[in-house]
Design brief:
Helix content is 43%, strand content 18%. The strands form three sheets. Strands 1-2 form a two-stranded parallel ribbon. The protein has two domains: 2-118, P-loop containing nucleotide triphosphate hydrolases (Rossmann fold, 3-Layer(aba) Sandwich); 140-179. The two termini are 44 Å apart. The protein has helices at residues 20-34, 70-76, 80-87, 108-118, 140-149, 153-179; strands at 8-12, 39-43, 56-60, 63-68, 89-94, 102-107. The protein is of the alpha+beta class. α1 links the parallel β1 and β2 (39-43). Belongs to the ABC transporter superfamily. ABCC family. Conjugate transporter (TC 3.A.1.208) subfamily. It is found in: Membrane. Keywords: ATP-binding, Membrane, Nucleotide-binding, Transmembrane, Transmembrane helix. One of its GO terms (cellular component) is membrane. Its main location: membrane.
């Protein structure tokens, strides 16, 4: 998306597919530096990036909960941690050092996966549908429907003829120039 050099970028949680170190690097170098003169709409569940946003829209259950700068949202009393812990993450505070409170986000799905792997149980339901393979040829009426959907036999013939002429002339020009 960055290579297109547009004025507005809509980014739908691109940082969730990478680890936190790479996500921080992408956010700092790409979004904050490279796109600093552009309008960027970043949809994300990762609240560590919201401090650098100029405007923040907080959604809960599809409805707008709050809109403003980071400081305005903190002053309004929005509890970001509860919003995240309600949805995808458990938030834990590590108080190993009295001066530091480090927030650690643990993915609920990872915890559930570990719990399921530790249990010895038989699979109850099959979640993957059976696949069927059919052998044979495609009937002629299917091709006829494609031709009619593509504009009819006349238009398809003109497009096919034009394409053949184009490639013939393209090849002929190379041959002519090599002889010349």
């Amino acid at each position: 998306a960055l290579y297109s050099d547009e004025d507005i970028y809509l980014l739908d949680d691109p940082l969730s597919a990478v680890d936190s170190e790479v996500a921080n690097h992408i956010f700092d170098k790409c979004i904050c530096d490279y796109l600093k003169t552009k309008t960027v709409v970043l949809v994300t569940h990762q609240i560590q990036f919201i401090q650098k946003a100029t405007k923040i829209l907080v959604l809960k259950e599809g409805r707008s909960l709050a809109f403003g700068t980071y400081e305005e949202l903190l002053d309004s009393g929005i509890d970001f941690m509860s919003l995240i812990s309600d949805n995808k993450y458990n938030v834990k505070q590590d108080i190993s050092n009295e001066n530091t409170n480090e927030i650690v986000m643990v993915d609920k799905m990872a915890e559930n996966t570990l719990a399921v792997q530790n249990e010895e149980s038989e699979p109850k339901d099959q979640f993957i549908a059976d696949e069927y393979r059919h052998k044979g040829s495609v009937e002629g009426k299917v091709y006829w429907h494609y031709i009619r959907a593509g504009g009819g036999p006349l238009l398809i013939s003109v497009i096919l003829f034009t394409t053949i002429i184009y490639y013939f002339l393209d090849t002929y020009i190379d041959i002519y120039l090599s002889i010349w």
